[in-house]
Amino acid sequence: MSKVMLRRADAQTIPLSFTLNGRLQELAVEPHELLLDVVRERLGLTGAKRSCDVEVCGACTLLVDGRPISACTTLAFEVRDRSVLTIEGLADDGRLHPLQEAFIEHGGFQCGFCTPGMILAAKALLDENPNPTEDELKHFMHGNICRCTGYKKIIESIMAAAKFMHGSRA
Amino acid sequence: MLRPFRLEEPESVKEVSELLGRFGESAKVYAGGTELLLAMKEGLVHYERLINVKNVKGLNELASDNGMVRIGALCTHRQLETSPLLQQKLAALVRLEQNVANVRVRQVGTLGGNLCFAEPHADPGILLLALGATMVAERASSKREIPAEEFFVDAYETCVEPDEVLTEIRVPVPARNSGVAYLKFGYLERPSVGVAVAFQVQESGRSIHDIKVAVGCAGPAPKRVPEAEEQLKGKSLDEATINISKAGEIAGRAAQAISDLHGSQEYKEHIVGVLLKRAFQNALSQYRAVQS
Questions:
Q1: Is the pLDDT of residue B54 over 50?
Q2: Which residues of A touch B104 (CB under 8 A)?
Q3: Which end of chain A is more exposed for a tag (fewer CB within 10 A), N or C?
Q4: Is residue A2 in some structural domain?
């Protein structure tokens, strides 16, 4: 899909204003446009990946108002007046988020394809539950699949980030 | 890839019903979209219009009065799994909701959408059958309450009329002297077998005076199994514990299991029996915990 889109004569456009990684973003979308396509193809943020395309794998995870969603199956107009966070917006002024640091330090990725989704889902988890048990972590993260099967390192990374951010569970 | 469609955004049930009446089969109600959009992306169905019902006020409320929990059709799975009210009144439904699909689907998927889409491999309908729930369907000028038994017709088919809108799910709060459990089995994202049981024990004696058994996922639509219930109804808890294997066999045969990538027919029938036994034991220990 190029930036110059051919519009059908009867195309319906919806004005879409939302916050993307802390900045106001305004564009017009058609009802059928998917959030993943808008973010990747129209806005050039390719961290979120299209993989299973059926909400199972988590590679396209984005946070909308802090909560994880599958961008592959979210209509773009749904983020009207909401706040979207992609992996590109997680670092703060060039400083990596503790989750990103922990994934590097603990080898939380191999090929890296699932990593943006993993880290965003983990952020949603830690925002709601700062000191998760390993079981709580596994339950929350079970919808994010790592085809390299590097789960042990991923769990270690998230637990380490939780510890760093909020102190260990008493 | 989605084919283009037009979007309607009505703000009342009446408007939704009128739009459905006007556009007929070329339009479809759209709520969370977690199942509908998958079918549309796959090209299995196409609609010229989607009617976004999320701007209709009052359809995402959760309330309880006179021993009845009322769940707005637009309540998301997330809302249900985190509701303190539901935890207090319908703990079995909370446990079910905590394990629907994954955290992203629960975030946007709605209970009403789940029921109306009637995908065979879905959890909530099975437990709602055992709980004796009813579904409220409205159109511009009428409103009716549909027992869960009548709601599910076939795979992807409910008895909701083309211009009706599911607005509310009503669930009677189980009495203190009851036990409720839902168990599922599956190795893929969706369950391949789901079994629910809800029973009430007589205040005086120790016999079961009301019991509902429901099965789903294995066949085209969730259903009650009265023949299995007969094996347990009126029996003492010990007798019922003995009869549960027989009831499980009956429920397995009644499940209308089909062979597919989730397992063979025989396998699923067997699993129904295993799950019914475990669900009954589970419900029984809950009942005993409350009594002691």
A1: yes
A2: 55, 58, 61, 68-70, 121, 143
A3: C
A4: no
